[in-house]
């Protein structure tokens, strides 16, 4: 009798293969025959068990349900139209397990972020449309020398809307959107990190057109260690595999885009900057954009005095979009604080239907909010401008 294979960490994921036990009156070496329907049911149940926790499995399950509930019976229970499988044909079960884990990072549905919902950043939006949206809509024009850029880098101060731009790209292009962070591609098991990178790009090619969004890419591929710098071997292998996979994208015609975002572009490796061909600065909002944000977040109420938008725009120089939102929230809290003071003086609890309305925001509330809120994204503003001058992509107005 052959020795039973030893336990590995994949045994806990897939289990060990068990041979059917011989029944009464049947030899041990005689194969057990089962019906065709039992085999189909067992395979179907096994597939559902392996993929029930995947991020996009629900749409495939709903697709099968719709086929069964459609008008007219389906011949032999199968649809004659070809359907794209959930995962490509991986070589090993280990690679398939890694593909299933990465499939959870596919964004289901649309992020529902329109270009109009992003105030300002007209230059960045035009560059993104030119780099990603137009090649997908009109692929006839983007051939040969005009082949689309496969790597796009969004850099700028924190809170300026880089992630919102990536969501707008996913909404407008309607591509398969992979939202990848460092936790998605870094594993504690030796050799799995670089395999995850390879499986990620295989999945992106399988679901093309697709967009791989690498948020905070400086945490994944910072400058590699050279003389006098120490770097772990696993980190170096991960970076090398990512560079190799991105180099393969630039030499192929598949519509797979890598969209990266970072607050520290000067920390990126020079080889990665070369592969991120389009580098777009997402700057702090200009006065027109700040005014549009204030008018949307702090709208004027009918019958109340006008808010000092001009003062807000003038004194919010150097504020990011996130800082402006915090500023508006602080201004809206001032009338609520006055009301809470009145309610705290009462000893009994006021019912919900008898609660008084919150008063309007006054110019004094605006002044108080400006004093209590400070910008958080102006520390390295000059470094972003210098990096944009040296490496950025710009278009003439």
UniProtKB/TrEMBL annotation:
Subcellular location as annotated = Cytoplasm, Cytoskeleton, Spindle pole
Query: Which portions of the sequence form the region Disordered?
Result: 15-48
In terms of InterPro entries, this protein maps to:
AAA+_ATPase, AAA_lid_3, ATPase_AAA_core, MT-severing_AAA_ATPase, P-loop_NTPase
The keyword ATP-binding appears for this protein: yes
Q: Does the keyword Thylakoid apply?
A: no
Q: Name one Pfam family in it.
A: AAA_lid_3
Q: Name one GO cellular component term.
A: spindle pole
Sequence ranges assigned to domain AAA+ ATPase in this UniProt record: 148-286
Q: Which CDD domains match?
A: RecA-like_VPS4-like
Keyword terms: ATP-binding, Cytoplasm, Cytoskeleton, Isomerase, Microtubule, Nucleotide-binding
GO MF terms on file?
ATP binding; ATP hydrolysis activity; isomerase activity
Low complexity compositional bias, start-end: 32-41
- This chain belongs to the protein called Katanin p60 ATPase-containing subunit A-like 2 isoform X2
Q: In the UniProt record, what gene is named as encoding this protein?
A: LOC110424218
